Amino acid sequence: MSKRSFWVTKSLDEMSRDEWESLCDGCARCCLHKLEDEDTDEVFYTDVACRLLDMENCRCTRYGERKRLVPDCVVMSPETVRRDNWLPSTCAYRLLREGKELYWWHPLVSGDVNTVHEAGISVRGRAQSERDAGQLEHRLVTWPQ
After folding, report:
1. How far apart are CA 78 and CA 15, in angstroms?
2. Are 12 and 76 in contact (CB under 8 A)?
């Protein structure tokens, strides 16, 4: 009998820091700027990424300092995952919260960090830095959902 994966056997609250961090698939969709309609709470994604995002690797260039450098950066936690409604439908944190399985392209499943890019899930080649973006209202997209 094979050992079951930690994300199947543990709740989000039970995971170690390393397990928690490994749930991130590297898509960087959470690094995209979002706009929220205050009347309906509907969230709209843009193709504009945080200035700290390495657009090729889809990883934060200053991960350990991100909250200090970008005060409105949302640090993922079990509480955040339960509370926030903006997580993309493909996000491992959201999938596990909803009792669903990880997709084949998730690095924990595939064993390869590049499958998230090969599957077209990541923002690689689809987003631009906030430094070059202009007004967010003109950058709305539907693909992250």
Report:
1. 10
2. no
The predicted-structure confidence for 98-122, as pLDDT tens digits, reads as follows 999 999 999 999 999 999 999 999 9
Residue 145: band (very low, low, confident or very high) from pLDDT cuts 50, 70, 90: low
Task: For residue 69, give the nearest of 130, 141, 134 by alpha carbon.
Answer: 130
SS3 of residue 44 by DSSP = strand
Instruction: Report the alpha-carbon distance of residue 69 to residue 76 in Å, rounded.
Output: 16
Cα gap 91→129, rounded to integer Å: 21
State the Cα–Cα distance between residues 102 and 96, nearest whole angstrom. Answer: 8
48 - beta bridge partners?
128
Q: Are strands 128-129 and 43-49 parallel, antiparallel or unpaired?
A: parallel
Nearest to residue 131, comparing CAs of 49, 33, 31? 49
Residues in the chain: 145
pTM summary value? 0.88
| Closest alpha carbon to 27 in 137, 136, 126, 109 | 126
| pLDDT tens digits, 38-97 | 899 888 999 999 999 999 999 999 999 999 999 999 899 999 999 988 898 999 999 999
